[in-house]
Amino acid sequence: MELIICKDEEAGSKRAYQIIKDTLKKKPNLVLGLATGTSPIKLYKLMIEDNLEGNTTYADVKTFNLDEYIGLAEDHEQSYRYFMNQTLFNHLDILIENTYVPRGVGDSCQNAEEYDEILKYLGPADIQILGIGSNGHIAFNEPGTDFNLTTHITDLTKSTIEDNSRLFNNISEVPTKALTMGISSIMKSKKIILLAFGEKKADAIKKLLSGKITSEFPASILNKHHAAIIICDEKVASKLSIN
Ligand code: GLP
């Protein structure tokens, strides 16, 4: 696993964006795996800016997202589909029908099966963007999740519900279940970029870099990936012993 330390979130996002841009140049029909949360927001802004300036096109790009809250429809302001449309897709020249996010409403088992079919059809991500939860979750693969699972229904842990409650009016509004891509699908990605900015991510990154692979800390599996990159800022790095 490669660790890239950048000055701050802005610099880290630029670094991540450069990787996407270079790959997009070589492969205009890129398959991009995308994440929600605050970590990729600056990266998405850079994608939009460059696209608006006409330096890139997403006309042939396909994307899939990692996860969705169960119970939130596409037009719910806290649904991940809504977030992705507002934060990225509506501002790019991408075809919205080429963007996939798991469905949060309807029969969740069927939605999970259908999403795995979609992932099979799209093939592995050329680049998968990831954030990390304070308990080491990636997508919504919480501690204890079997590394071999594909898309599945998961119960969110107390710490994830607490972390994510900042975006809701009240903690009681945070859904307790989600549909998430499994780790086995994430690990098929050709390249993975995990973004971690700010002091709050330092402990998780330290644990990840310890190299111990355990389902109790789901992100630890990334140590086994052939092309996983962590891009962090100096706030994270200052807590790592390598510094
Ligand atoms: C959520 C998402 C994850 C994301 C994590 C971290 O739980 N399901 O995919 O990585 O939050 O979010 P943030 O980037 O806001 O810290």
Molecular structure report:
31% of the residues lie in helices and 17% in strands. It has 243 residues and is an alpha/beta fold. It has a single domain (10-195), classed as 3-Layer(aba) Sandwich (Rossmann fold), CATH 3.40.50.1360. The strands form 2 sheets. Strands 1-10-9-6-2-3-5 form a 7-stranded parallel β-sheet, with helices on both faces. Strands 4-8-7 form a 3-stranded antiparallel β-sheet, covered by helices on one side. Strand 2, helix 2 (41-52) and strand 3 form a beta-alpha-beta unit. Helix 1 crosses helix 2 (41-52). The mean pLDDT is 97. The structure holds 2-amino-2-deoxy-6-O-phosphono-alpha-D-glucopyranose (GLP).
Number of H/I helices: 8
Order of helices and strands: EHEHEEHEHEEHEHEHEH
Any idea what the radius of gyration is?
17 Å
Total strands: 10
Strand order of the largest sheet: 1-10-9-6-2-3-5
Write the CATH architecture name: 3-Layer(aba) Sandwich
Low-confidence stretches: none
Q: How many structural domains are formed by the residues?
A: 1
Structural class: alpha/beta
Shape: globular
- Indicate the proportion of strand residues: 15-25%
Ligand catalogue:
2-amino-2-deoxy-6-O-phosphono-alpha-D-glucopyranose
Summarize the SSE layout with pairings:
Blueprint: E1 2-6, H1 9-26, E2 31-34, H2 41-52, E3 62-65, E4 67-69, H3 80-87, E5 99-100, H4 108-122, E6 127-130, E7 152-155, H5 158-164, E8 177-180, H6 183-186, E9 192-196, H7 202-209, E10 228-233, H8 234-237
Parallel strand pairs: 1-10, 2-3, 2-6, 3-5, 6-9, 9-10
Antiparallel strand pairs: 4-8, 7-8
The structure holds 2-amino-2-deoxy-6-O-phosphono-alpha-D-glucopyranose.
